What does this fold into?
Amino acid sequence: MPTSDRICLIGAGSSGLTAAKALHEAGLPFDCFEKGSALGGNWRYNNDNGLSSAYRSLHINTNRRAMSYSDFPMPERYPMFPHHSHIIEYFEDYARHFGIDKLITYNAEVTNVRSGSAGSWCVTTRSRGGEQREQYYRAVIVANGHHWSPRYPDPPFPGTFSGETLHAHHYRTPDQVAGRNVVIVGIGNSAVDIACEAARQYSGRVTISTRSGAHILPNWVWDVPFDSLASPLMSKLPLAVQRLVLRAVLWLAHGNQERYGVPRPRRPLLMEHPTLSQDLLYLAGRGLIHFRPNIRELQGNQILFEDGSTEAADLLIYATGYRVSFPFFAADFIQVEQQNNLELYRHVAHPDYPGLYFLAFLQPLGPIMPLAEVQSRWIARLLSGQCQLPSRPEMLQSIAQDKAAVTKRYGTSPRHTLEVDFYPYKESIEQEMQRHATATTKKRCLETG
It folds into this structure.
């Protein structure tokens, strides 16, 4: 069987780019395969890889300073919450600056990944023209993202709907909702963005159907980005204290969200992923967005909700999240699509498959790009022999402890299986690089002071 010292990197989105940089700087040979014709992944509007969920008006909902890679800040000329076109420009500048723009193979879809003998990995790619190629690698880094394969309610709502049905993944422009009576299932960030955009059309009725509600966080508190209030110190406080501080800040920012007509969520703060929106409360307060509980039954052009109320609708939008999906793995190899149950050591390394790493399969309370960056540095050190993983029993024990902690805090919903707290998680990866450094690396550190 052919052998190779090269590494396969799947995807050239925000996570694949920082992984490519880490591998390049470590002097590790790699092939980065991107299905589309350009970098940027989910952030490239109308990406020809067919996987992007970006809509025309999309802006980031974490501030640019927090979202930036550590050694390449976004320009000060950018707005604090940039448009997706700014983010693509930033990615292109980043790739050029670090010399990785020429190291990506575009129009190359990874169609199959399977383990070979002697620790190798066999990867099959297909070009845009249909040409297939099989190559062997010593490691594979999966960075294909987890916001591209739509998830629908399971089981589906009973009954039938006579209007148009759409998943938020396929939403692009306001003309899709203009003049329509719209019911949106879900109250996450995409659901709220679409609802606000529909409400600004001042035509039709816009209704959000939510099973459990959500805490609505603003983008700004006075003239300060709300997420800049997070800090390593804050993250070390007991959860009850963090919740108390956050509740006080929210009260000062906008008071009681129920006064605007937005229902109180069933779960306490920090026990679910929050929703960020500067506009939702004010549009709801003006009667432009309405709220209903979960759907009980679809009745043609009428939708019956669990409180017995009904809404006439001609457009039903499912903003019900995404499934983790790996179409290049055999069905009996790694199957996580039903519950997003991807059990990895520190959300990166598979305990049963040495040489297989997963990048940015996280749902952080904070920005994901800096976490993908620190994950990439750790993977590069593992692959260069500067770090090593603990034993399999240790990894399995850690995975079980992490899963128990997430279940205790968030429950068993697929929405929360990838949940992490930004600063504690970042610190845990940095500790991995120190605690499991090899003897050679420790000696080098001592010699250099």
